[in-house]
Amino acid sequence: MRTVEVEGNSRVDATRRALELLGADVDDVKVEVLREEPRGMFGFLGFKRVTVRVTIVEENVLEDAAEIINRIVSFLPVPVEARVEMHKHTVHLELAGHELRQFQKEEDFADALAHVVELVVNRRAKNKIAVKASFAEDKISREEELQRLARAAADRIASGRAQEALAPMTPRDRRTVHMTLERDGRVVTESGGTGNKRHVVVYPAAARRKRAPEAAGKPKGERRARPPSRPRAQTSEPEKAGAKRAKSSRRRRRKPKGDGPEKKQPPS
Amino acid sequence: MKDLIEYIAKNLVEKPEAVVVHEVAGEKTTIIEVSVDREDIGRIIGKKGRTARALRTILNAAAMKQNKRASLEILE
């Protein structure tokens, strides 16, 4: 907590000096008058001497915010840790605890939390304070988790499962999964489903080689439902005569139909 | 869940004593009913329902504790 005690010849004067010292705005401080001595002799000669203690109050806001968050977070099913910081007129909540992701989008939750905290904090404080919340190092650990998820699925496929559909993901996340398993010779990945149900499906690599030429001969409806994987899923595998043929036949087919819907979702 | 909404609601309104929260438990879905002072309804709902939406988001995260769904209703 930053506090100064300053003497001046009036309350206003003393406060002004204190604010200069602190480099703070009058809205951000609490002013207490410590001593007020009357003018010198006869009550009008000389100056009044006023001593004020000026304290920057952002600490209170921080404590409020921290308390509210901790209370809210204590109701959650998974541990979330919050770190509260303040810069200028903005409170930053840095949240940690990624298990929450199982249930909903973290950003949504962070925004909701920030909004509520902002309302509560500002209801008590006089001046407006913005509150922002985000999950710490979101991108890095998100990626790691996706990679872990992808490898676990690949392991299950390798030990005999016919296929495994992962939960629906954003294009970016699907891309991460595809890329993680791209070099895994045991499996191939492709995206299935449409719109916000679009998800990655993992197959054994052997099944893929058989499926490709087969799919080329199938009617339209069947193909839509399960578009062919990108060529790169195949390129990591050693080229065999059969695989090559399959690839070129698929490529021919892709031009008229496959391209349209696939362009929209690049990482499929 | 009820406590959570009650805590937040009481901190949002001008008249915390008028905040009443009921929990109607169902098999899968729990309904949390909030009623507040007439004057405070706007504070609970927020501009374009932003606060109500935030409350629902937080509630849903909390509801997963019991493997349930929860919905929030604001009574007038």
**Quaternary structure classification:** heterodimer
State which percent range the strand residues of chain A make up.
15-25%
Strand elements of chain B, count: 3
Strand line-up in the sheet with most strands of chain A: 1-3-2
Distance between the termini of chain A: 53 Å
Radius of gyration of chain A: 32 Å
Helix content of chain B: 25-40%
Give the helix/strand class of chain B: alpha+beta
Largest sheet properties of chain B: 3 strands, mixed
Output the helix-strand order of chain A.
EHEEHEEHEHEHEEHHHH
**Mean pLDDT over the full residue set of chain B:** 86
Calculate the mean pLDDT score of chain A and round it: 71
Strand order of the largest sheet of chain B: 1-2-3
Distance between the termini of chain B: 21 Å
- Helix percent of chain A reads 40-55%
Q: Name the shape of chain B in a single word.
A: globular
Q: Counting H and I runs of at least 4 residues, what is the number of helices of chain A?
A: 9
* Uncertain runs of chain A: 212-225, 233-244, 257-264
Provide an overview of this structure.
- The complex is a heterodimer of chains A (268) and B (76).
- The radius of gyration of chain A is 32 Å and the shape is rod-shaped.
- Chain A has a three-stranded antiparallel β-sheet with strand order 1-3-2, covered by helices on one side. A three-stranded mixed β-sheet of chain A has the order 4-5-6.
- Chain A is an alpha+beta fold and 268 residues long.
- The longest helix of chain A is centred in the C-terminal third of the chain and has 24 residues, at 241-264.
- Chain A contains nine helices and nine strands.
- Chain A has helices at residues 11-22, 58-74, 106-124, 138-158, 171-182, 205-216, 220-225, 232-235, 241-264, and strands at 3-8, 29-37, 49-56, 81-87, 90-96, 130-135, 164-165, 187-192, 199-204.
- In chain A, strand 8 and strand 9 form a beta hairpin.
- Residues 212-225, 233-244 and 257-264 of chain A have low confidence and may be disordered.
- Chain B is α+β, with helices and mostly antiparallel strands and 76 residues long.
- Chain B has helices at 2-12, 41-45, 50-63, and strands at 20-25, 29-35, 69-75.
- The mean pLDDT of chain B is 86.
- The chains are: A alpha+beta (268), B alpha+beta (76).
